[in-house]
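Mods, move this if it's the wrong board.
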Amino acid sequence: MKYKLSEIGKVVGGGTPSTKQPEYYTDSEIPWITPKDLSGYDKMFISKGNRDITKSGLENSSAKLLPAKSILVSSRAPIGYVAIAKNKIATNQGFKSIIPNESLVIPEYLYFVMKTSKQNLEQIASGSTFKEISTKVMSNFEVDIPSMNEQKRILRYLLPITRKIEKNIKINDNLLELSQAIFKNKFPNVNDGSEKVGMYITNYDKNRKPLSKKQRSQIPGKYRYIGATSVNDYISKYNFDGIYLLLGEDGTVQDDNGYPILQYIHGKFWPNNHAHVLQGNKVSTEWLYLFFLQRNIDGIVTGAVQKKISQKNLNSLSIAVPDSGELAKFDNLIQPIFKQIRTLDRENGRLSKIKQELLKKFFSR
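Not the wrong board. Structure tokens:
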């Protein structure tokens, strides 16, 4: 049955406390989410973002405190990020969140409805400078909500797969954290050498061949088309096969702490031209990956508006590489960990395909 969102819940906007008032922001008080916090976020529930706000920040802005199980939907820059609030939470003005009426709709079901509504949401957005969805327009947005029994039936298919994917991601996060701890313990002075990291990188940027959205639409398939931060599409062709690093080249190149945006990729894929495609040279690609994960790169990022890391600047980073014996000992420790990471990644790839088919079956109406 078709419902307006306002008929199955309350649509609530957000706000940003004045950044001129430092007392409005803190490390731990009221979780406050921005669309940036959901960029690349792959879990159903979210408990906090990069920053919290204080009670006075909440009271002196248009931000609202949302209850747990509210559906957070980004309404601009970009449109269509979705997550469920795990606890009480606030958002900035880039959201039109939904407090669901749980007698009509199960929050997890509405989450999947909104996740599969991205294209329709983009079509109802307006604005000359950037597209945005107003509270009124979001409130009138129509969604198909079946009976509670049917919602429960559908969730019996989707929730176990979703939870297994998230469990695997958590395991891999823990394995990577362990790998980083081992690296820092073994090589505490790795950034203090007189050599340049370019000596230990094989760069494949010349093999990149970006494809337009139209070109990709003509060759749908199972291989990942990957951008600077995430998988952008799936196509029927690939031009890389193996273990590589994708390090953001322009646009989103580093996180808020100055560390590089980096992806550890294995298998068959097609990269666009917004990330450097790298492998280790004389060091394993995993060693190189862990080196970059602990290295602040502020000094090699150029551009005030459009951030960029050139090959030249990337290659200029100083490094102290241990001898071959130490590298071999380290790889003996680390390679089994990364083998497990790759195994769980592949399992998640298979589960994600099943999940996408189920989403098409239940929500493409």
